[in-house]
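WARN no homologs supplied; continuing
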Amino acid sequence: MDVNDNKVLMKKNLTAQIAKMFREVYLNGNWISTNYKAELSDVPWEQATTKIGSFNTIAALAFHINYYVAGVLNVLRGGSLDIRDKYAFDLPPIESQADWEKLLNQMWEDGENFALLVEQMSDEQLEAAFADGKYGQNFRNLLGIIEHAYYHLGQIVLLKKLLAQPADIRVWSDEK
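OK structure emitted
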């Protein structure tokens, strides 16, 4: 296979690769040795809602990332882009394990539906304008979702490590 054959093969499988990359960070991959499902599935609701200093909670970050996934998913389904940055951290109250699991189950469902729709996209759809065109091409926005997901996954991993420390040796304080 020569270089030109590789280019054709890559272009043909680009949406499958993007969907795979998304699944790796969101649902079941181990490219970086973890993913959202692995990191969040063992977090009890009390830990997910524990505030550390001025940081967002684990639950707020989970809601936040899925807010964007769900918003882009709506566009991929042919709908409009209805999400707004100012609402991206408007997490509904998490007051029980059932509330937390409802949020997680919505993430997994939205994530799989997102990946399935990405896999089905044609090259023309990938190159087409996203929503009203103000945000560039679909391709750019799909990669942006993946990059955004990795960014916040790192925050969640760090928050879990901080919360695992005994309270008396934690290195942060709400006091000034």
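Residues 3-165 form a domain with the Four Helix Bundle (Hemerythrin (Met), subunit A) fold (CATH 1.20.120.450).
OK
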